[in-house]
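Data deposition worksheet. Section B asks for the primary sequence of the deposited chain exactly as it was used as input, without tags or linkers unless they were present during the calculation. Section C holds the resulting structure in C-alpha cell form. Section D is free text for depositor observations; keep each observation to a single sentence. Incomplete worksheets are returned to the depositor.
Section A, Depositor: J.P.
Section B:
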Amino acid sequence: MADKPHMNLVFIGHVDHGKSTTVGRMLLDTGSIDSYVIEKFRKQAEEKGKATFEFAWVMDSLKEERERGVTIDVSHKRFDTDKYYFTIIDAPGHRDFVKNMITGTSQADAAVVVCSAIEGPQAQTKEHIFLAKTLGVKQIIMAINKMDAVKPAYNEASYNKAKDDVTNLLKAVGYKIDEIPFIPISAYKGDNCVKKSENMPWYKGDTLLDALNKLKQPTSTEGLALRLPIQDVYTITGIGTVPVGRVETGVLRPDMKVIFMPSNKVGEVKSIEMHHETLPMAKPGDNVGFNVRGIAKNDIKRGDVAGPVDNPPTVAKTFVAQIVVLNHPTAIPVGYTPVFHCHTAQVACTFIELQKKLDPKTGQVKEENPTFLKTGDVAIVKVMPTKPLVVEKAKDFPQLGRFAIRDMGQTVAAGMCIDVEKKEM
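Section C:
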C-alpha cells in the first residue's frame, strides 16, 4: 500500500462545472475502476434522463454506500499514478465540499480546480479558491473543462478567456500564477485527462495526469507529536471501544497511552486497523480505527483529539486567529458567535476582540481595533470558545490550527490560529 508516497487531493469548483465527471474519468482512465461500472451507470443515467452523468455517479454511488455502511474509509476513493497514490476526498456538490474541507478530513495536499470553459469562473469557483488558500492548500492545478462543448468545439479562444478570468481570481487571492498549470480538458470525452488530446493541437502542455505526477510531495508531519481528531466512536462486540479518525501528525502505535482532549480521558491503544487490515503503526494521512483499553464509548466523542499523555492536545480558553471574511451579509462586530469547524469539532465561539485589519495582498496592518469586519476583510481577532475546544497554533500543527466559520447555512469566514491561551483542565 505505502510503496508510493500518499497525497490527499481535493476537487473543487462551481457546481455543475464537472468536478465529479473529472474524478470519474481519472478513476476510469487510470484503471482504478472497471469500464463495465461506467457502462452500467451510463445505462442507468440515460434511463433516468440524466445522460452524461455516468462518471459523476461513480462518486455518488459511493455516497449512498457511505450513508448505508459503517466502513472506516468514509467517502474516500483511491487511485494510483506512476508516482503517487492519491486519496480523493471530495464528494460531489458544493455543500459536501465545504463540509468535508472543514471537518478537516480533507486537509488536502493539493487541489484540482475545475472550471467550465462555457461559463468561466462563478461564485463558488471564487469561494473555493479563497478557502483553499486560507486553509493552506499550496499546490493547485487548474482544469478548464467542457472544451468539447464550447462553440466551436475545442477552440483556443474560449480556453484563453476562461484562463484569463481565473488568473485574475488566483492573483487576487495571492497564488503565484507561474506555479499553476492550466489544462484544457473534456472530462466527459477524456481529452487531456490521462491521454493527450488530438482535438486541441494548439495546446502543448501537460495532461491532468502529468500535472498530478509533477506535484511536490508534502513535508512529513511524522516527527511531530501525535494529533488524531476523532470522527466517530463505535462499540464493536468482542472488541470494545473503537474511535475512528485520521492521523494528522505523529505516529500511533499499539501499547501507546493516549489522552483524549477536551474529554480528558486516558486509554491504551490495543490494535489499529485501516481498510480492514491490522496495522503495526499509523502514520499521518492514515484513516484508522483503533481499539482503546480503559475507555467507554460515552467517555469520548467526535471532535475530541487523541495525543500522547506527555504532550496532550491544547484546549483553548481563548485563541488569536487570522481570518478572512468570505461571505457575510452584514458586518461582524465584537460579540458575534458563529460556529467554528476545526478538524472534526464544531463549536460556537465568540469574537471578544477585533485586533487588526490587514491588507490581504501585503499582510500589512490597515486598521487597528476596527469596529466591525465585512466580506473581503482579512483580520486578526481574539475568540473564546463557548465550550471546550482543542485548537493548536497553525505553525506547530497546521492541521489543527485551521478552521472555517459557518453561520446561516454558509461559510462566512475561514482562518488559522496564531496563538492559544490554554484552559486549565
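Section D:
The CA atoms of residues 327 and 412 lie 5 Å apart.
The chain has three domains: 6-213, 228-308, 316-422.
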